[in-house]
Design brief:
The protein is about 75% helix and about 0% strand. The chain contains five helices and no strands. Helix 4 runs antiparallel to helix 5. About 5% of the residues are buried.
């Protein structure tokens, strides 16, 4: 392994450790403020949305909001199933089944 790759890995590890440790050290005595705790609850939803929505509406690099966009249709089905059933297995199976059916039919 080259030295520069090793140094990059060590540098990334140090930065990751520093950012995580700083939060622990900062809130160790006082605890996290309630407003920050409420705000942080929305971070996973925001990140997941930022990752999933572009994949659904930009499947070929351009906006495609039509019935020919199988990704979007399967995503809508999966969203509806997730909302109604709150069951991740049902959501995955029906979303993937919808994608497969649309791929085979179209």
């Amino acid at each position: 392994m080259r030295n520069e790759i090793f140094l990059i890995i060590v540098g990334m590890a140090l930065v990751t450790f520093a950012t995580r440790f700083s939060c622990v050290a900062l809130f160790q005595q006082t605890g996290m403020p309630p407003w920050l705790e409420r705000w942080l609850k929305y971070i996973p939803t925001a990140i997941l949305t930022a990752l999933i929505v572009p994949a659904l509406v930009l499947p070929k690099g351009q906006i495609d909001i039509s019935f020919h966009n199988h990704y979007l249709l399967a995503g809508i089905v999966a969203t509806f199933i997730a909302y109604k059933s709150r069951n991740i297995i049902a959501t995955l199976m029906l979303g993937m089944g919808t994608m497969l059916a649309l791929h085979l039919l179209g």
